[in-house]
Specification:
The chain has 482 residues and is of the alpha/beta class. The chain contains 16 helices and 13 strands. It has two domains: 5-178 and 296-455, Zn peptidases (Aminopeptidase, 3-Layer(aba) Sandwich), CATH 3.40.630.10; 181-293, Alpha-Beta Plaits (2-Layer Sandwich), CATH 3.30.70. 41% of the residues lie in helices and 18% in strands. The strands form three sheets. The chain has a seven-stranded mixed beta sheet with strand order 1-2-4-3-5-13-6, sandwiched between helices. Strands 9-10-8-11 form a four-stranded antiparallel beta sheet, sandwiched between helices. The longest helix is centred in the last third of the chain and has 23 residues, at 415-437. Bound molecules: zinc ion. Residues 105, 107, 142, 167 line the site of zinc ion. Zinc ion binds next to loops.
Length: 482
């Protein structure tokens, strides 16, 4: 008898909820996710997976494999948290530790749904239900470094036939939309220090350079394509007002719908930085942190995920989930639903409009707005250029929950999040099983991929000498490492 995936996942769910909650509590910043990565690795090792750890110079990146033959189906998992979002699972704002990180994007759920699916698939494989190789990709630092691009560059996906992933969301859908390509770059300015009152004329302010660069970039915006995005934070701005700062730094994200558009915009940002250095008689050093491509969609795989999402059906919510939802909704800003709607393309807005007033979404949004670019980026993009890939999202939060918010952290650590995670695990397991047992489907997805990639070849957004910025991340967040 072939394994009943849905039954196996239900029977083993407590173990996976516990792992997800542990990662939720660890809440580690990207590239520093030692405990989270270790827990996932140990669980996979114990189940009999072979582990390769430390991919592309990132100690927390790993690949877990079971099986040796084709096809190779990869499930991608993430597990990094966001700074400053520490929060308990209570429906009121209440940090565990003020200023510490929290899972504001639900990546604890993301990583564990993939783990659950891989372990269920291994049971089925060992039962003799199919041939092939099951892979779990432990992908660190989605939020701050776009680490998957580094893994792609290191050849980690070179023998993969198909990749699948998902993301916690506030409604159920196959991700049919696209995301922006992004570069993440730090501009370090160096000047000359001096007493700011007694001797300022001997100083050359690195902070002036940062400010002038930002002014220049804000003027540059008018002459960029409308969908491009530039945003920055000043990560170093001096020690005290009475010292001319000899060191200052600004961290930029530059985004556009496509990699080639980004490749045109970025040198203009660099010119502004060099201009600021020239004006202030300082020097600028450019530190390219990371980057990721827009997505290359695969409609064959999107259709497969849509079918499985509908086949399995959404989880049910009990009274305590409903009560929790009522409490959380009270904390949302007035007009929150319209604000969320406006972030989606028009056809998806029409579908979401039908859900006005729904708290916990249970159907699956139809396959609309295919290929339309949403603001925001994901490093899943790079993987989609080297293997056919599709992703979906499940209800892990109340409809309208803002991204990267304390409300999201709270829900990623309680039953609504857990239910969405288990639903996602079931979809990943059933879709992978279909791919393992239906070679025609794999061929179809690959032929669609090959046609697209021949038309537009992929070039990694990362420079050839790219190294993961582990020390930089440590220097930014060392105060709140638990
Ligand atoms: Zn995320």
């Amino acid at each position: 008898m072939p394994l009943d995936f849905l039954d196996w996942i239900e029977k083993n769910k407590e173990k996976f909820i516990e792992i997800s909650d542990s990662i939720w509590r660890f809440a580690e910043i990207g590239l520093l996710e030692e405990k989270s990565s270790h827990l996932l690795i140990e669980t996979l090792k114990e189940a009999g997976f072979t582990i390769e750890q430390g991919i592309a110079g990132m100690p927390t990146a790993f690949i877990a494999s079971h099986g040796t033959s084709k096809p190779v189906v990869a499930i991608l998992g993430e597990f990094d948290a966001l700074p400053g979002l520490s929060q308990t699972s209570d429906p009121i704002k209440k940090p565990f530790e003020e200023g510490a990180p929290g899972h504001g994007c639900g990546h604890n759920l993301l990583g564990v749904a993939g783990l659950t699916a891989c372990l269920a698939l291994k049971e089925s494989f060992d039962n003799g239900d199919f041939q092939g190789t099951i892979r779990y990709y432990g992908c660190p630092a989605e939020e701050n470094v776009d680490a998957k691009g580094g893994m792609v560059k290191a050849g980690a996906f070179s023998d993969v036939d198909i990749s699948l992933t998902w993301h916690p969301w506030d409604f159920n859908m196959v991700v049919t939309t696209n995301f922006q390509a992004i570069y993440s770059v730090v501009f370090n300015f160096k000047g000359k220090t001096a007493h700011a009152a007694a001797d300022p004329y001997h100083g050359r302010s690195a902070l002036d350079a940062v400010e002038l660069m930002n002014v220049g970039c804000n003027y540059l915006r008018e002459h960029l394509i409308p969908d491009a995005r530039l945003h920055y934070i000043i990560t170093k701005g001096g020690q005290a007002p009475n010292i001319v700062p000899d060191e200052a730094a600004v961290w930029y994200f530059v985004r556009a719908a496509k990699l080639d558009q980004l490749a045109e915009i970025y040198p203009r940002v660099v010119k502004v930085a060099k201009g600021a250095a020239l004006m202030t008689e300082t020097e600028v050093e450019i530190d390219f942190q990371g980057g990721s491509a827009n997505l290359l969609p695969n409609l064959t795989l999107e259709d497969l995920l849509y079918e499985k999402m509908n086949q399995i059906g959404s989880p049910t919510y009990d009274q305590s989930d409903q009560d929790y939802a009522d409490s959380i909704i009270k904390t949302f800003e007035k007009g929150y639903f319209d604000r969320i709607l406006a972030t989606y393309p028009i056809d998806m807005q029409k579908e979401l409009e039908k859900l006005r007033g729904v708290k916990l979404h249970k159907t699956v949004i139809p396959l609309v707005s295919r290929g339309v670019t949403l603001p925001g980026s994901t490093d899943v993009g790079d993987v989609s250029w080297v293997t056919p890939l599709a992703q979906f999202a499940t209800t892990c939060t109340i409809l309208g929950t803002p991204g990267h918010s304390w409300q999201l952290v709270a829900q990623a650590g309680m039953s609504i999040g857990h239910k969405g995670m288990l639903y996602a695990a079931k979809v990943l397991a059933l879709a992978s099983f279909e791919l393992f047992t239906n070679p025609e489907l794999v061929l179809q997805a690959k032929s669609e991929f090959n046609k697209k990639i021949t038309r537009t070849p992929y070039k990694s957004p990362l420079p050839d000498d790219w190294k993961p910025p582990i020390e930089y991340i440590k220097s930014l967040y060392s105060d709140h490492r638990k």
